[in-house]
Amino acid sequence: xxxxxxxxxxxxxxxxxxxxxxxxxxxxxxxxxxxxxxxxxxxxxxxxxxxxxxxxxxxxxxxxxxxxxxxxxxxxxxxxxxxxxxxxxxxxxxxxxxxxxxxxxxxxxxxxxxxxxxxxxxxxxxxxxxxxxxxxxxxxxxxxxxxxxxxxxxxxxxxxxxxxxxxxxxxxxxxxxxxxxxxxxxxxxxxxxxxxxxxxxxxxxxxxxxxxxxxxxxxxxxxxxxxxxxxxxxxxxxxxxxxxxxxxxxxxxxxxxxxxxxxxxxxxxxxxxxxxxxx
Length: 279
What we know:
Layout: H1 2-9, E1 21-25, E2 29-30, H2 37-52, E3 57-60, E4 71-78, E5 84-93, E6 98-108, E7 116-119, H3 128-139, E8 148-152, E9 159-161, E10 165-166, E11 168-172, E12 176-183, E13 188-191, E14 198-199, E15 205-207, E16 216-217, E17 223-232, E18 244-246, H4 247-264, E19 267-277
Parallel strand pairs: 1-3, 1-4, 2-4, 9-19
Antiparallel strand pairs: 4-5, 5-6, 6-7, 8-11, 10-16, 11-15, 12-13, 12-14, 12-17, 13-18, 17-19
């Protein structure tokens, strides 16, 4: 932790001891579900403590923001169902409002996060699944304009093994048109075909059931995968010409689609992350 924080702040520390760098460490926030808030409080405290150990750095308490911090340290916790948790730290220069540096922490899943290691900041971009989670948080911070749920047959915390069939449940509070996407560990996205993409409000939709004509067996490569549902009160255009395509360029189109649908009427979004493994 100390090495990481030093890497983050050292380029910004003034060479003059008379002008300490004022830093505010904000509470870390979760970008996915499944963990307790106590974990982020602890992580925020660890980062603040390490920042306070650096020479020529003054750590401001949250109630001291009126003292004009020069740098704000933000953090986002990516909580996936595994034995590791990724924390992304970002530095914001308050004078320019620009992000000046980023780095990642990889922590054990122990409730108190006692073992901390770090991966050097290589400028690694977010993977497709993290980008989808970011997109959903941006457009649907509270789920959207109406309630929409998506969940796998075995539950959110279950592990799905090779050749096992994935069955997905969807429930919209109101009548809606759906777009359902399956983001796989190989970096592709599958646009799930629907016999009718219109669903009545309150009527569950189940995808992938045996004999339905569309089944989704777990195949390699294995890892973190995601099902995403967009529901709109207005018809949605076809997602693309191909049923399977690279996820990254599609996510850009998806962002534009959601923005357009939100401008026209009520829209909701929901997603669930699951883990697939070899037998």
